[in-house]
Write a structure and sequence with these properties.
It is a single chain. The chain is built from 11 helices and 14 strands. It is an alpha/beta fold and 329 residues long. The strands form 3 sheets. It has a 7-stranded mixed β-sheet with strand order 3-4-5-6-9-10-14, with helices on both faces. It has a 4-stranded antiparallel β-sheet with strand order 2-1-12-11, sandwiched between helices. Strand 11 and strand 12 form a beta hairpin. The chain is elongated, with a radius of gyration of 21 Å. The N terminus is likely disordered.
């Protein structure tokens, strides 16, 4: 899920939180703090990966909540504790205090000099032709609903190309189903592309068995030629599942920089005073069963852009993908 949708989704999902978190507690500073601490302790998925001593963090920040004389002070104690997780999927909204731990700067890119034509579609998507035989599709988000037909429209418009460059370098995620459905436009058959595991017990290492995530051929238009997928440090969350999906489908070469390594579908909660928070309860795995949280997915061909080159009209990552699509190795 992306940062842009997080606040809205918090309010939509929190109505169901009572059944997950348990009965309401007393509306006191310490009770509010303890509810958040306990909820993370039982369900948060990345304590082991991030090597976080959650007991110690609770011992450090709980006295601040106990001594709080205002809502702002309680919220600050909770936000301070959560900031130590360094997880972009962890969000907290309490009183006037809000925190989303570290953000990632937009990767420098430029497409104008390379495209013969460019058109925009619903869902933050643009497409065009770089050459008569090379198409380009930029997917900036996997948020929202009803825009997957835009992928079909782009593929229809690019009919006849031998290769397509798909750009997800500044895609900060969205819904996992959108990512796998978009990938379905490039699938020959149903394919397992990744695995997900969910917290299943009180120990921070307790996880249920891996669940296969699959891509099924879908959409009115499909492309089975060569794909060159552009990635970067701002390729996040659901966009990383898209990378895993396209790589597993074959006929895809990933070009650019390593992805963000921000995984795990976040779930939302609401405290009895109306404050909201979210965190991931799952962990995403590659096909070989390895984790990539805080590591990211490395490209097949590493190319890094610089602001200086972009200012001079050179997008090194896109340029390399074009050369590859032209059959030049």
């Amino acid at each position: 899920m992306s940062r842009r949708t997080a606040v809205a989704v918090l309010m939509v999902l929190c109505a169901a939180c009572g059944a997950i978190v348990g009965p309401d507690l007393a509306n006191t500073p310490v009770a509010l703090f303890d509810q958040v601490w306990n909820d993370f302790d039982l369900h948060y998925s990345f304590f082991v990966v991030k090597q976080v001593n959650w007991d110690s963090l609770g011992a450090v920040y709980r006295p601040f909540a106990a001594a709080a004389k205002s809502d702002d002070a309680v919220a600050s104690a909770i936000a301070g504790m959560l900031s130590n997780l360094h997880d972009d999927h962890v969000l907290f909204r309490g009183n006037r205090v809000g925190t989303s731990v570290h953000g990632i700067a937009i990767d420098p890119t430029i497409t104008g000099p390379y495209l013969q034509s460019e058109s925009s579609l619903a869902g933050g998507m643009t497409y065009g032709r770089i050459a008569p035989s090379i198409g380009y599709i930029q997917i900036s988000t996997f948020e929202g609903t009803g825009w997957l037909s835009s992928v079909d429209s782009a593929l229809s418009a690019l009919n006849g190309v031998n290769a397509i460059i798909i750009d997800v370098r500044n895609n900060d995620g969205g819904f996992l189903e959108n990512a796998t459905s978009a990938a379905g436009r490039f699938a020959v058959q149903t394919t397992t592309v990744a695995y997900v595991r969910y917290r299943s017990g009180p120990a921070h290492s307790d996880f249920a068995a891996p669940i296969a995530q699959q891509v099924t051929p879908t959409g009115s238009q499909r492309f089975l030629g060569d794909v060159y997928l552009l990635t970067g440090r701002n390729t996040i969350s659901a966009a990383e599942l898209f990378v895993l999906s396209m790589r597993a489908l074959g006929h895809t070469t990933v070009v650019g920089d390593t992805t963000a390594g921000e995984t795990g579908s976040p779930f939302a909660r609401e405290l009895q005073n109306g404050w909201t928070y979210q965190f991931p309860e799952s962990i995403e795995l590659r096909l070989d069963g390895t984790e990539f949280e805080d590591i990211g997915l490395a490209p097949d061909i590493t190319v890094q852009n610089t602001f200086r080159a972009i200012e001079g009209g050179l997008d090194s990552q896109l340029a390399r993908a074009v050369v590859l699509a032209q059959g030049i190795r």
